[in-house]
User: Which sequence fits this backbone?
């Protein structure tokens, strides 16, 4: 063994809900645990037990383990220690804590994806409460927000978070690393009820195909039966050109997202608030998605302090045909939901159209008309979509038509 | 150790503290002292300079002239907060004079008062009767203070002085401006802090009063928040405070998404329950979450075209904004937390000084707190019976003073917006470490994961039964936190009493015991 000391975790006065471990493997002397914890009185003993359990699980008999704890949960401490161990020892063993009941739900292809909240994959403090802000999806990010030398740690933390941190019903997403490095992330995710993988800088159907092969392999190995959806992110000029090919590469591709920071860099232009530089890319991608029958999801809005500008941004986005947007701060979620949700006048109009359609069908009429205006089938279809969305958001009840007719009668 | 008895909240408390007999808590409203108020000795104007000039060379000289001797009680106010440069120098002087066993009776202490530990160790000071936090709290919790600490609320401090439970020998009152006669206020000077309300009881009831200032102004210094007629000596020093530590230049609404969520839930609860209404009286603190709640309330009032009749401060620029934008009619103020608030006291005629002497006082003929519709408070712990703790941490250590917290519990609707856990430490317990306030006075707990209504508030439970807000039982919230944080151990606490927690009426509601490391 050449390198006998390894570290994992984060340290510093501002760090919360995390810890920093230093593991030194020894030839003799047994297990020595040095712990300095912010919550020593209440959790010092249980932390010590956990440290011993993990070392013994990996068959380590002589080591000095230093734990500097800033109020980390067991699942965080366990991830840190395991990552440190794996930096020193080559093993396939995994120290898994309980998979909590609350996380045993699935997601569906068609579900709402208005908001998806990005969380850095190596920062546990943000993960604990992400779900309470009620985003449609939570993304644990293994890619850009994780430093290169922290990837192993983040893989273990994300795995433990998928098992032990309550997502409160949000779609459970992980952004893996760019192809082909992202393939290495899969074994930490697939067995742990990940719903959706975000595939960054996707530039062709072949990447999706290879990814799916590996996913299938792991699924059968771990007896995972539910679908694992994919949301490729289009972040380059080539990606934009291949959007339709990517959108139709697999039935598990349920949405494409656009990443404008990298895209504008690829174009050699600057990202502006007006976003004229990415207009083509955005409309092209939306078109590809609609042609493939999947969702088109917009980039993030990076000024977290400006809710007015965010609202405007969402309006434009919705106008272009996007059906969702990324969030980098929980306070953006509500604004995004409200702005993507159908407006009252929109719902009202949709109810009139759908009602007229039902009326016409009941009367056996081939033509739907509202007042003196004829209604085309695609308009009816869009109105139905609006109604269904309004029902799913709780804006109108499932028996809306009854109330609608009563109101018309009254 | 004296005899211990079980008080009305089920805690074992002694019948004697620091050699004086004390009364165990009997229940809310069950204890009414009788007799006449305590009074200081009768002074005569003959003993004071006819030209009105009471300025004296140094604090040490003033203390000597006041007859400083062993065992005396010295009081101070905390309006200079963490920028206080005066309190420590009192004990520097006392040490030079060579007296022992003093009792320091501040209205609150701050981290800047840490040097007093040295005087607690060498016997110059016997004990602190006031708030203890940070290193002082740790020192006391480890049983290192000679006497037993006594923690009182701001109102309880007034009560103790007025009914003679505490006799102040010398009050040393820092003043941002004073004339030579001792008329003082806090409106100008480098250490301007707005108001001096916590000093009112001290100058009225102390045997001797020393005003200490770094801003001697011409007579008459008006308004005279401290009245020179009660003052024995005026001491002029270079500096009484560090301005940026006295008031924060600017208080800030929290940026934490979790705390903003708590604030939003709180405001929505107040709106749906109709506790928030046109003409309501309200009070919230200056913490980031409270400020956010104030901000949301401001928005709701604006939308509805309502206004709050009055807000009781600690005021901040956000409260001033409500005043100036017409969603609040009056601010009554015991202390100013930021520069915006200090300026408003000077500029806005509806921003009134109103000391805790009038607002929180148990021996007053009525109190402001019981009139408040909305009372936003904090807590370190709450238990399943809604008892609250603000003095100690879950590890047993003294952490905070009581402040006005106990007094504020008398409001019509007491709301505690608190996170369900902090750094893995759940806030809701089976039993709080220290009972500072009985559960029957705490109405609503708002956390990021749900809102619990005290079962005694059947009216609110009924009103909110169809609410879309996440209303849960307190037991459910407790279980949720424990599930996330994992099982924890109880701190190792001995029987030795290190501090007593007084209720607003002067009875002992709980004690703090020595922590064994």
Assistant:
């Amino acid at each position: 063994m050449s390198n006998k000391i390894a570290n994992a975790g984060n340290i510093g006065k501002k760090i919360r809900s995390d810890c920093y471990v230093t593991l030194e493997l020894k030839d003799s002397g047994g297990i020595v645990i040095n712990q300095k914890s912010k919550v020593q009185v209440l959790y010092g003993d249980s932390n010590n037990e956990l440290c011993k359990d993990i070392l013994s699980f990996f068959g380590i008999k002589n080591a000095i383990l230093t734990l500097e704890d800033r109020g980390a949960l067991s699942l965080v401490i366990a991830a840190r220690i395991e990552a440190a161990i794996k930096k020193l020892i080559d093993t396939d063993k995994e120290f898994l804590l309980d998979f909590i009941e609350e996380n045993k739900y699935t997601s569906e292809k068609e579900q709402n994806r208005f908001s998806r909240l990005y969380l850095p994959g190596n920062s546990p403090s943000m993960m604990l409460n992400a779900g309470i802000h009620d985003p449609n999806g939570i993304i644990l990010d293994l890619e850009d927000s994780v430093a290169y030398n922290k990837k192993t740690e983040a893989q273990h933390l994300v795995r433990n978070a998928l098992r032990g941190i309550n997502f409160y019903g949000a779609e459970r997403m992980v952004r893996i690393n760019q192809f082909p490095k992202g393939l290495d992330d899969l074994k930490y995710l697939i067995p742990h009820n990940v719903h959706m993988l975000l595939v960054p800088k996707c530039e062709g159907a072949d990447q999706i195909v290879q990814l799916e092969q590996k996913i299938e392999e792991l699924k059968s190995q771990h007896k995972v039966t539910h679908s694992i959806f994919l949301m490729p992110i289009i972040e380059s000029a080539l990606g934009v050109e291949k959007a339709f090919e990517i959108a139709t590469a697999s039935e598990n591709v349920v949405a494409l997202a656009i990443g404008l920071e990298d895209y504008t860099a690829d174009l050699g232009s600057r990202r502006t608030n007006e976003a004229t530089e990415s207009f083509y890319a955005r409309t092209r991608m939306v078109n590809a998605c609609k042609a493939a029958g999947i969702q088109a999801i917009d980039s993030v809005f990076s000024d977290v302090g400006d809710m007015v500008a965010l609202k405007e941004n969402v309006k434009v986005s919705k106008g272009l045909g996007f059906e969702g947007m990324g969030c980098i701060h929980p306070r953006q979620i509500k604004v995004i939901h409200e702005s993507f949700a159908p407006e009252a006048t929109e719902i009202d109009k949709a109810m009139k159209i759908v009602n007229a359609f039902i009326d016409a069908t009941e009367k056996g009429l081939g033509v739907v008309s509202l007042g003196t205006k004829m209604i085309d089938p695609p308009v009816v279809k869009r109105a139905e979509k609006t109604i269904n969305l309004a029902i799913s958001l709780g804006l109108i009840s499932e028996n809306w038509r009854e109330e609608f007719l009563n109101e018309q009668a009254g | 150790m004296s005899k211990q008895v079980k008080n009305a909240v089920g805690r074992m408390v002694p019948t004697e503290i620091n050699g004086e007999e004390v009364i165990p808590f009997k229940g809310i409203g069950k204890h009414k002292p009788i007799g006449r108020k305590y009074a200081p000795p009768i002074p005569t104007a003959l003993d004071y300079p006819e030209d009105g000039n009471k300025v004296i060379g140094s604090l040490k000289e003033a203390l000597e002239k006041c007859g400083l001797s062993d065992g005396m009680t010295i009081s101070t106010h905390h309006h200079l907060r963490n920028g206080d440069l005066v309190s420590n120098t009192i004990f520097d002087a006392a040490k030079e004079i060579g007296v022992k066993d003093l009792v320091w009776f501040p209205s609150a202490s701050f981290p800047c008062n840490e040097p007093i530990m040295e005087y607690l160790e060498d016997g110059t000071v016997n004990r602190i009767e006031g708030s203890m936090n940070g290193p002082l709290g740790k020192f006391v919790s480890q049983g290192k203070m000679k006497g037993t600490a006594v923690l009182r609320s701001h109102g309880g401090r007034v009560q103790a002085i007025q009914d003679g439970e505490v006799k102040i020998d010398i009050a040393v009152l820092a003043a941002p401006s004073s004339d030579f006669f001792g008329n003082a206020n806090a409106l100008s000077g480098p250490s301007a802090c707005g108001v001096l309300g916590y000093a009112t009881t001290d100058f009225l009831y102390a045997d001797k009063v020393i005003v200490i200032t770094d801003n001697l102004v011409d007579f008459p210094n008006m308004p005279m928040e401290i009245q020179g007629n009660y003052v024995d000596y005026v001491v002029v020093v270079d500096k009484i405070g560090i301005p940026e530590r006295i008031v924060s230049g600017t208080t800030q609404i929290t940026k934490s998404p979790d705390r903003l969520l708590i604030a939003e839930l709180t405001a929505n609860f107040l709106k749906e329950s109709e506790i928030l209404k046109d003409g309501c009286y309200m009070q919230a603190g200056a913490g980031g979450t409270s400020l956010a709640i104030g901000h949301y309330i401001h928005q709701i009032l604006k939308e509805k075209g309502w206004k709050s009749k009055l807000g009781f401060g600690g005021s901040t620029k956000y409260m001033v904004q409500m005043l100036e934008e017409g969603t609040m009619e009056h601010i009554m103020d015991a202390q100013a937390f930021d520069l915006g608030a200090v300026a408003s006291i000077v500029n806005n005629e509806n921003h009134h000084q109103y000391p805790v002497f009038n607002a929180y006082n148990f021996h007053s003929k009525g109190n402001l707190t019981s009139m408040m519709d909305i009372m936003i408070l904090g807590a370190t712990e709450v238990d399943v019976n809604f008892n609250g703790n603000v003095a100690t941490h879950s590890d047993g250590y003294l952490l905070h003073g009581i402040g006005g917290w106990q007094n504020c519990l008398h409001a019509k609707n007491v709301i505690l917006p608190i996170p369900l856990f902090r750094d893995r430490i759940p806030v809701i317990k089976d039993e709080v470490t220290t009972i500072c306030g009985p559960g029957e006075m705490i109405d609503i707990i708002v956390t990021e994961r749900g809102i619990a209504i005290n079962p005694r508030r059947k009216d609110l439970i009924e009103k909110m039964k169809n609410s879309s807000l996440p209303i849960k039982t307190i037991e459910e919230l407790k279980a949720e936190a424990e599930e996330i944080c994992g099982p924890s151990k109880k701190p190792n606490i001995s029987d030795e009493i290190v501090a007593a927690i007084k209720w607003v009426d002067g009875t002992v509601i709980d004690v703090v015991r020595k922590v064994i490391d």
